[in-house]
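Bug report (template v2)

What were you trying to do?
Predict the complex of my protein with adenosine-5'-triphosphate.

What happened?
Run completed; filing so the output is reviewed.

Input:
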Amino acid sequence: MPAKKVSTKKASVRARDKAPTREAEPRSASATPSPPRRPRAKKTVVILSRKRSLYSTRRLVEAIKQRGQRPLVLDTLRCNMVLAPSHPRMIYRGVDIKGVDVVIPRIGASITGYGLAVVNHFEMMGVPVLNSAAAIAQSRDKLRALQLLCRAGLDVPRTVMAHDRSDVRTLVREVGGLPVIIKLLRGTQGVGVMIAHSIQEVQTIVNTFWDLGQEVVLQEFVAESKGQDVRALVVGDRVVGAMRRRAKKGEFRSNIHRGGEGTSVQLPDSYVEVAVKAARLLGLEITGVDMLDGSKGPRLMELNSSPGFEGLEQATKKDIAGEMIDHALRLSERQRMATLIRPTL
Ligand SMILES: Nc1ncnc2c1ncn2[C@@H]1O[C@H](COP(=O)(O)OP(=O)(O)OP(=O)(O)O)[C@@H](O)[C@H]1O
């Protein structure tokens, strides 16, 4: 169902100044009349997204409306940031954005730089964001993310990054020999993930990428995973849905975009623990954690900070969008309470 267009004009109106909707009268067994209740104002939830027609954006908008709150979809690239001492502002199509309660960034890889600046600007304006600019940046840098996970003792496939063309044979040995996985550091949806079965192939692939100025890593091929991987969606400190993705015939990459098929799974505790710990380590409130099945347990591949969830909702029949919005609303409420309490301390 197409998302209803949300007028950006509303952005100029402070959410709490809007005419409040009446809440239902509380039922009470006591004869004492209860004091009049202050009606709760709607919360404004901003979705940063290039297109409101994208599945995940539409579902988030739907979930916000279902909870009686106000969605506002802003095209990340149309957000203009004004830096002024102690008063950062955001202008969208000539309108000052005010009264935002929480922001959910959906930042595609192609606009990471500008997207991070916009997210950071909302943080400077004191608005809670899921996820923070620092956490998104950390998870987008695949090597840094793997370094952090590895340092914390989590199991990641053996990985090397190098620039020395003369030493490819040693690099292959370091990751456990052939076949070897070669990954573009900036790849997504399985594009830029290759398997090489000979030293010659490895050399050709890495040299091509290096000549194009691209960074690559060599990674141990986790054969036990047999063309499957696990996607766990972590919201806060819970896995709210998980699926096993199977690669199509003749393909080792199980991404849905590469024709992989997802089926709902109930994850063993060890997988849940690893996924939640990894999300905490990278500071991600919402994340899609990709894991391979190793012979000794889950092996972390990567964490996506703006995970698409169409395949996951279809496979699990769960309201993943609703889980994300509930968490966002909880965080915004927590922040509101914190600002109320602070002056009395
Ligand atoms: N080390 C490995 N051993 C075996 N299979 C692997 C390995 N790394 C990746 N794969 C397979 O290739 C697929 C794509 O890898 P990966 O998720 O790293 O790519 P990506 O382009 O970063 O994808 P995403 O869109 O999730 O960011 C995985 O889903 C998995 O099936």
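What did the reviewer find?
Residues 320-341 form the longest helix (22 residues). The two ends are 48 Å apart (CA to CA).
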